[in-house]
Amino acid sequence: MTQRSFLLLLSTAAILFFTSCGQRGPFVPDTSGLPNPWDSLTFASGIQSILTPNCGGCHSGFGPDPTSYSAVSNYVIVGNSATSPLVVKASGGNSHGGGVVLTGEPLDKIKYWIDHNNAAP
Ligand code: HEC
Predict the structure, then answer these.
(1) 75 CB less than 6 Å from ligand 1?
(2) Whose alpha carbon is nearest atom 7 of ligand 1?
């Protein structure tokens, strides 16, 4: 075997070795091409049901009253959940008379609805 073909063999083995290592670990399916079920979130189909039990007790006819889409949307800056008063108040980012703090999926849904779904009714 010439030195040249030995080096070729060695580098092929190295490539196989290093690329095969990347395949270890749990199988994670690629879902990037699939529709996100949250893309169909609307006020009526998923947001109102979060706000009613958490906020409705106090916000009845005042502030973001969950029975009224237009009342709630007064506190939404479409496309910008980070500065929307609805999210800022609900996530404890600003002192809130209600003291209620949403976290996890309910908060993420509200943010998604504002940022990706134009806060659809
Ligand atoms: C225990 C009663 C109570 C609950 C429950 C409550 N709030 Fe409030 N909220 C208040 C009070 C009192 C104020 C007025 C003082 C202030 O701005 O913090 C207020 C003010 C707000 C404001 C500003 C209103 C304005 O016109 O400036 C927003 C937005 C708001 N709350 C969102 C929410 C959201 C979202 C929820 C549910 C996750 C919620 N609140 C739950 C009592 C409550």
Answers:
(1) yes
(2) 98
Looking at residue 49, its amino acid is S
Residue 43 predicted with pLDDT over 70: yes
* Chain length of the chain: 121
CB neighbourhood size of 69 (10 A): 18
Question: pLDDT for 6-38, tens place per residue?
Answer: 555 555 555 444 555 555 677 877 877 888 899
Q: Helix, strand, coil proportions of the chain in percent (round to 5)? A: 50, 0, 50
**Residue of 43, 54, 55 to mutate, ligand 1, most atoms within 8 A of C-beta:** 55
Amino acid at 107: L
Q: Confirm or reject: Cβ of 85 under 6 Å from ligand 1.
A: yes
Distance from C-alpha of 43 to C-alpha of 47, rounded to nearest angstrom: 5
